[in-house]
Specification:
It is built from 18 helices and no strands. It has about 375 residues and is mainly alpha-helical. The longest helix is centred in the last third of the chain and has 32 residues. The protein starts with a helix and ends with a helix.
Length: about 375
Amino acid sequence: MFSLLLAVIYLIFISLGLPDSLLGSGWPKMQMVFNVPSSYAGYVSMTISFMTIISALFSPRIIKRFHTKWIVIFSIMLTVFGLLGFSISSQYAMLFLFAVPYGLGAGAIDASVNHYVANNYSGSVMNFLHCFYGVGAVISPSIMALALKYARWNEGYRWTAYLQIGILLVCIMALPLWKKNDEEIDEETSDSAGIRQTIKVPGVVLTLIGFFAYCAGEATCFLWTPSYFAGTKTGLSDELIASFGSLIFGGLMLGRLISGFISNKLGDRLLIRIGIIVEVAGIAMVCVKTYGYLLSAIGFVVIGTGMGPIYPAIQHMAPTNFGKRYSAAVIGLQMASAYVGSTFMPMVFGHLQQNIGIGIMPVYLLIFAALNIGMLELTYKTIRV
């Protein structure tokens, strides 16, 4: 029963990853259809992320009031509605309407499932969990590439929505699996601290800044990697450019898969340090000027591989660093800070690349990698755990 529940949780994270890479993969074509500047992708991404911030901030209250299983069901329903809405959008402005359920669906499910796993499973399971997020995020650029080749970008969103509906049906059928764990969940969440109490705990703010920096770089890669190739390489087809959206996600999946086997031995902190080193090596590869696209493509995979263990390790450290009483609120705050980075930093980069050139992307990523590791190292010194 417990193993089956874990399998369902992995499937939930596949569903969480599915919508995240569609906008970046489809945007080079969507931009032309809507006849708007390339930077306008940032506004749509910002709206999605802003709604996710709202749901993440409310997640401690939601987690105390509702069981994770119901949060999962309702959140997937919201993302399905958002995806189907994007698929029928005929004007740029319509994207903002459907970005609301698109974003709200992600925040609560992300925070609630991460809280449940951080408190009940090992770091290895957390890394494998986020590896399955990468599976979903790798699948959707391929779906968009097929849609651009055989149909339209709209179908990429519609086909992804159909996959989400399938996962939703599985989750509904799996509801009885959660019953065995309901009492345990109630005990863990009954004494949870609130946002106001938690923000005052030493080291929490530093962690939030570090998480912000990580997700700023990650989200910039999510949204702008296909556009980077479109702007720096010549002679590439629309479907090939769209498929480059899966590079960073493939790297994330690989990094988390590897980390799943070694995290219990190395620990979260060492994994993060190694991940930053690998990420910087990937950024260096992208900086090398070549005529073809192969080295840059490998570089983005390496960047994703380095980023891979950072997100799950920061989440998994929350109960250890700050205690179980604060873990739900810490993870909710981490999700909110993460999506602040995801909301504003891709938009900021959109304006930078429009004025300076998209070739500035590796430098932009390097700045946030340095901020990420710097803030986390300060956190360790502050909490001394």
